[in-house]
Write a sequence for this structure.
């Protein structure tokens, strides 16, 4: 139950890679021009983590002193303390400033962040590049969850292989197999489920495995000075090319992801820390504080969106500087002291302390998510905010996913026999149907609703999300209109943000179409 000295020497080049990776992420998140590829800083972190974990696990196995408990606790000691403080601060500030409809989701996010399942939560809620992502205070913890899942599985896999056959080549073969299967899985998964491909370990594991494979290549292949310089130059070129060519419209992960992944691996293999981009005070300072900087910056990004200042440059500069200040304070007052404190305690004490803190804060976060705490904010603020929960009571009855030829239930809103308007659209149509019904009521008429979840009302449209059922449902609408009184107006209401924004367009057309008449109907060109 005693701590062992680290088997891994500090490398200034890897520390600098952390610095440039976190800086790229910050520039992207704060919307700085010409930084649209900055999100791949996370992929750089994945490669670094894979390399370091392989070094730690294998050297422990090879030396006969590897311990799963020590490995897991070392990771927990590195990750959990700052995460606890960030979550606590957000929940505490949220108590005073966030209305209930925004505070309760924060509680849910906090629970998942503390138990490293936030990537699973966000995979079902919003794409990383979607507008809704800027309402998620702990969205950035998805990458911590991916790494945590890797930390849990990876040493078990290596330990199992080592027990069966104590061979580096067996491990290398397993890593190559993981890289191939994970990459192919992510590539296939992305076609239909882009969010799960982005957030989950099965489609991200290949990046960490590339980092692990890099460690074994470094062990087995001795590189001369010229080859190292070439690797460094090629690696930097790949990263630079990625920064110039990649943006959020690219599928991710995909073949494009190889640019930062392979570039990072080559720079690690080069092992030339004296290069001026790697060995300088700024890079080393940022690298040491990269974890804290990553954790503290995103809540400030979300704050700018909440106060609608995300496009004002001096607010961005202020938030950026505050991020750096918080990162420094966090490093000095949390990371360094907790590591020093924990390293002087037994592993059993570490388990008790960390588990107790996570459990207590987790209970608090779960309570926030499940219970209403009244009188926190002025009543008028809560009343206004609660309008976000004002959902059509007939939503489940009348609003359905696209069902192809089965069409819509066709609910009637209003008590009049005659229909004055047909409302067609997605969930936003459901939100406006009562308003239209009030207007029609003055004319002595009702409203008929045909709505389909996440389906834009466009002729011949297909949806990745609805597997082609949107097209069939739209055709059903066209058929039904032939049977309706042509004097009855059709009102179309759709949201367009999920079509225009996101990791990729969620709709597509099988063919190219052009308008052929004033009626707006289209035909294949």
């Amino acid at each position: 139950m005693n701590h062992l000295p680290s088997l891994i020497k500090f490398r200034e080049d890897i520390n600098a890679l952390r610095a440039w990776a976190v800086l790229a992420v910050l520039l992207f998140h704060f919307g700085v021009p010409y930084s649209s590829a900055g999100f791949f800083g996370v992929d750089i972190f994945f490669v670094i983590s894979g390399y370091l974990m392989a070094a730690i696990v294998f050297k422990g196995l090879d030396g006969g002193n590897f311990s799963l408990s020590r490995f897991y606790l070392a990771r927990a000691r590195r990750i959990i303390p700052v995460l606890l403080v960030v979550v606590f601060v957000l929940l505490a500030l949220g108590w005073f400033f966030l209305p209930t409809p925004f505070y309760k989701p924060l509680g849910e996010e906090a629970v998942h962040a503390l138990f490293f399942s936030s990537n699973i939560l966000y995979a079902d809620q919003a794409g990383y590049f979607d507008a809704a992502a800027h309402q998620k205070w702990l969205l950035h913890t998805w990458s911590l969850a991916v790494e945590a899942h890797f930390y849990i599985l990876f040493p078990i896999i290596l330990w199992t292989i080592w027990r069966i056959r104590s061979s580096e080549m067996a491990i290398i073969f397993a890593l190559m197999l993981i890289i191939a299967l994970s990459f192919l899985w992510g590539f296939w998964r992305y076609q239909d489920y882009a969010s799960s491909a982005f957030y989950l370990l099965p489609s991200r594991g290949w990046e960490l495995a590339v980092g692990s494979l890099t460690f074994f290549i470094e062990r087995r292949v001795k590189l001369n000075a010229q080859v190292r310089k070439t690797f460094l130059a090629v690696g930097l070129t790949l990263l630079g090319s990625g920064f110039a060519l990649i943006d959020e419209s690219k599928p991710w992960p995909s073949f494009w992801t190889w640019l930062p992944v392979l570039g990072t691996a080559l720079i690690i293999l080069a092992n030339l820390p004296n290069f001026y981009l790697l060995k300088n005070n700024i890079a080393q300072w940022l690298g040491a504080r990269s974890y804290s900087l990553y954790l503290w910056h995103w809540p400030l990004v979300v704050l700018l969106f909440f106060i609608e200042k995300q496009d004002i440059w001096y607010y961005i500069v202020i938030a950026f500087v505050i991020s750096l200040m918080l990162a420094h304070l966090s490093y000095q007052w949390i990371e360094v002291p907790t590591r020093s404190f924990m390293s002087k305690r037994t592993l059993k004490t570490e388990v008790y302390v960390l588990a107790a803190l996570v459990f207590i804060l987790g209970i608090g976060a779960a309570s926030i998510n499940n219970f209403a705490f009244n009188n926190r904010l002025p009543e008028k603020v809560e009343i206004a905010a609660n309008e976000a929960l004002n959902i059509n009571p007939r939503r489940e009855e009348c609003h359905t996913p696209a069902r192809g030829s089965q069409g819509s239930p066709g609910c009637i809103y209003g008590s009049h026999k005659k229909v004055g308007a047909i409302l067609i659209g997605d969930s936003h149509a459901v939100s406006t149907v009562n308003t239209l019904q009030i207007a029609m009521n003055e004319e002595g008429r009702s409203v008929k609703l045909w709505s389909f979840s996440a389906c834009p009302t466009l002729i011949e449209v297909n949806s990745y999300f609805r597997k082609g059922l949107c097209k069939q449902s739209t055709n059903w609408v066209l058929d039904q209109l032939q049977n309706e009184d042509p004097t009855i107006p059709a009102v179309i209401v759709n949201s367009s943000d999920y079509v225009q924004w996101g990791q990729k367009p969620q709709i597509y057309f099988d063919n190219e179409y052009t308008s052929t008449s004033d009626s707006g109907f289209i035909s294949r060109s």
Summary: Residues 205 and 503 are 20 Å apart (CA to CA).
